[in-house]
Amino acid sequence: MGALVVTEGSTFTPPGAGDFDLPPIFLGITKPMILIVLSVVIIAAFFLISSRKLKVVPGKGQFLAEYVYDFARNGMAREQIGSKDFRPYIPLVLTLFSFVLVNNVFGLIPFFQFPTFAHIGFPLALSLFVVYPVYHFVGFKRHGFVGYLKHQTVPPGAPAAIYLLLTPIEFLQKFVLNPITLAIRVFAAMFAGHLILLVFTVAGEFLLVEASGAIAKPVSIISFAFAILMTFVEALIQVIQAYVFAVLSANYIGAALAEDH
């Protein structure tokens, strides 16, 4: 993005996509890479510690862990996959939700302040190399190779002539677009939300420190106020996007296992 002239002698360069390309810290390792590994450590430590000494009357850590588990089990896996088949997939759905949530929330934590999934490569890798193989594998395993292809691409009940158009569209959606759109949803939300926070924060700082003029300082307060407001909105979106990623993954598994299209 180009520089925007705000006052005479002062220029404001708004944040852009280049601000997400963080330089390597050492040996080609970047901050998002470290955050990905750290998220795994945090999640593993949380569940291990909170379940180490289970009690009938749970403490705060056990209560939170049980709540998250119950939410993933009954609110996502069971609803989307079905009560007959959902149990083996609870760990996957729980892990997906926790992993995406922690990496999203990094964007609001001081010092970290970067949502890992604002880099398209991370959600795309999670979608293509974890979710995509799992739901197609279970589909092929249940229905057989030809049966699963028919199950996914030939909806029953349509006129024969329609299948010439419908089958390629279904194949494109189920085998090409689903994993891409799954990744793009969370990436776009994290990228746009973090960029908006950067714009309001950097603009407020510029107006307060650099800009001159009678209205610059009062306007900086408005900019900071919007930054605070958008922080709460972004926190909500981060949770929603983690839920959407996990629930859609469960939905794909349920659709692959279902007897009907």
UniProtKB/TrEMBL annotation:
Q: Which domain of life is it from?
A: Bacteria
Q: Which UniProt keywords apply?
A: ATP synthesis, Cell membrane, CF(0), Hydrogen ion transport, Ion transport, Membrane, Transmembrane, Transmembrane helix, Transport
- TM segment ranges: 25-49, 89-111, 117-135, 182-203, 215-233
Coiled coil segments of this chain:
none
Q: Does the keyword Signal apply?
A: no
**The protein's role, per its UniProt record:** Key component of the proton channel; it plays a direct role in the translocation of protons across the membrane.
> What protein family does this chain belong to?
Belongs to the ATPase A chain family.
Cite the HAMAP family for this sequence.
ATP_synth_a_bact
The entry's protein name is ATP synthase subunit a
